[in-house]
Amino acid sequence: IVGDDLDDLVGRDGDVLEALQELTRLAVTRETGGRSRLMLDVAGFRDKARAELVALADEVAERVKTAGEPEKLEPMNAFERKIVHDRIGEVGLRSESEGEEPRRRIVVYPAE
Fold first, then answer.
1. Taking a C-beta distance cutoff of 8 angstroms, is the pair 81, 36 a contact?
2. Which residues are bridge partners to 96 per DSSP?
3. Category of 99 on φ-ψ map: left (φ > 0), alpha (ψ -120 to 50) or beta
4. Per-residue pLDDT tens digits for 72-95
């Protein structure tokens, strides 16, 4: 969704966007009978978040490579964790999720 003054559709930290996405997924599932992997974005919020998460993953990867010690990240939602896991794998390290929602977090490990 693009346009001017869409902050209300994003909400604080994307909470309204998450709710809109879930409602949209439910509507698609109801109409099609199949589960949807639909991703809704408003005003480029998810693109900006993706870039920030890739930068975070790069910073953490550098620290883990330098120190040789695992590092735990702050809790993230599934969308955020997927981006970080993908980037950590791209730079040659290993990552795992631990904990239960909503406190599920990523641990980044040095290469073996």
1. no
2. 107
3. left
4. 999 998 889 999 999 999 999 999
Handedness of CA 93, 94, 99, 101 (dihedral sign): positive
pLDDT in tens, 30-75: 999 998 888 899 999 999 999 999 999 999 999 999 999 999 999 9
Contacts for 64 with CB less than 8 Å, ≥ 6 apart: 70, 71, 93, 108, 109, 110
Tokens of 99: 């904990």
Strands, DSSP E only, in the chain?
71-72, 94-98, 105-109
Structure tokens at 25: 């997924």
Tokens read off for 100: 């239960």
